[in-house]
Amino acid sequence: MDQAPASGEETLADLHETELLFETLPPRIAEALRETDADDLLEVVLDLGRQPTARHTDREVILSDDEVTTQDLDHVVAAISEFADDNRAGIPRTLHRISAIRNRRGRIVGLTCRVGRSVTGSAGAIRDLFEAGRSVLLLGAPGVGKTTMLREAARVLADDLDRRVVIVDTSNEIGGDGDIPHRAVGRARRMQVPHPELQHQLMIEAVENHMPEVIVIDEIGTALEATAARTIAERGVQLIGTAHGNTLHNLMQNPTLSDLIGGIESVTLGDEEARRRGTQKTVLERRAPPTFESLVEIQSFDRVAVHEDIGGTVDKLLRGFDAEAEVRTIAPGGEVSGATRVPVPSTQGDSLEPVRERTRERQDLPPAPGGPLRRILPFGVSRSRLERAIHETRSDAEIVDRVGDADAVMTLRP
């Protein structure tokens, strides 16, 4: 997601905030950073006894031949706010985050100084979901822009759509450090969380005390937080949040967070129902309506995959059918420059490919060699997947329901 063109006022403000981060660093390291291109700077890493390093989007730069000393670390710690229980601190009214690594005695031996930026337009690709009032869950790898998009979503909902927005800001990463929220969240209100383990309580408190139409929450990661999110959704409040995981498949396999998409449970079917479905008697099904109605996988800075109806998608995947997502390509200004429907395989595989390309590959498959018709009984194998495999490979085979009618049994069980 490239940065949208910023006004002169915004550019000056961003430069000022970057300089505030540099001022917290030891002078020799700050000077080295000023001589480099800081536009794509992600973070500065200071580890005791190692050379200071600047990490950019596509490279790492050694900032000094001299190793980081205890005095260097103390210099940074003295210039920032106190570290919270999650070993994170910040610089007031900026989006920068400083995280500490401690030794077994609790002494700081490493610092990660992460550059925070507001990118106007970064949520434009999924604005239609916000406007429709849908609760949206964002997934993606660390550093891909989840919090940046979440922050912009809060601003769009509060300023452009005139919704009552409350941010539950666990690490002050959405609204910045200090008591005054950063300008990037617009008119959205912000509740700070004193201790990370209290996040779920603040989520409920926000709904009960401040009458929000929208709750924005970063890093839903525990069962208590997932339960709180469901409670909020059941009260009719729109939820915009992020969770740990890169893809929908990751979330489905996570026993703690799968409740966000309805939860998954094992169900034993009766003989007649299993025969009607053509499946084994024990199947996986969605337990409840999903907390979030839509899910967005942030695949890169300029590409997102949108599952608009996440409940329907999960149901298809659990039944062994492929679903579809819409992959949107994002232009530098934040608008959608292209959208393609892509298949979501029922089992986790490689990166998604356009439907048209996959269909063409299947049509080009040569017919299977001729031979006698084989009757196959699937046992512990998805009947729908086997049917699809027979069709796509043009095999002379059919599926039967009785052992006496079968030439072979296909199973994954010993």
Could you please describe the fold and organization of this structure?
The two termini are 48 Å apart. The protein contains twelve helices and 20 strands. The chain folds into three domains: 8-114, Beta-Lactamase, CATH 3.30.450.90; 124-357, P-loop containing nucleotide triphosphate hydrolases (Rossmann fold); 374-411, no CATH class. The chain has helices at 8-24, 27-34, 70-79, 127-131, 146-160, 199-210, 223-234, 248-252, 271-277, 310-318, 355-363, 383-393, and strands at 41-47, 53-56, 60-62, 88-90, 97-102, 108-114, 136-140, 165-169, 189-192, 214-220, 238-243, 264-268, 282-286, 294-300, 303-307, 323-330, 336-344, 374-379, 397-399, 408-411. By secondary structure, it is of the alpha/beta class. Helix content is 29%, strand content 26%. Residues 1-8 and 348-365 have low confidence and may be disordered. The strands form four sheets. It has a nine-stranded mixed beta sheet with strand order 9-8-10-11-7-14-15-16-17, sandwiched between helices. A six-stranded antiparallel beta sheet has the order 3-2-1-6-5-4, covered by helices on one side. The protein is elongated, with a radius of gyration of 26 Å. Helix 6 packs parallel to helix 7.
Can you lay out the helices and strands and say which pair or pack?
Layout: H1 8-24, H2 27-34, E1 41-47, E2 53-56, E3 60-62, H3 70-79, E4 88-90, E5 97-102, E6 108-114, H4 127-131, E7 136-140, H5 146-160, E8 165-169, E9 189-192, H6 199-210, E10 214-220, H7 223-234, E11 238-243, H8 248-252, E12 264-268, H9 271-277, E13 282-286, E14 294-300, E15 303-307, H10 310-318, E16 323-330, E17 336-344, H11 355-363, E18 374-379, H12 383-393, E19 397-399, E20 408-411
Parallel strand pairs: 7-11, 7-14, 8-9, 8-10, 10-11, 18-19, 18-20
Antiparallel strand pairs: 1-2, 1-6, 2-3, 4-5, 5-6, 12-13, 14-15, 15-16, 16-17
Helix pairs in contact: 6-7
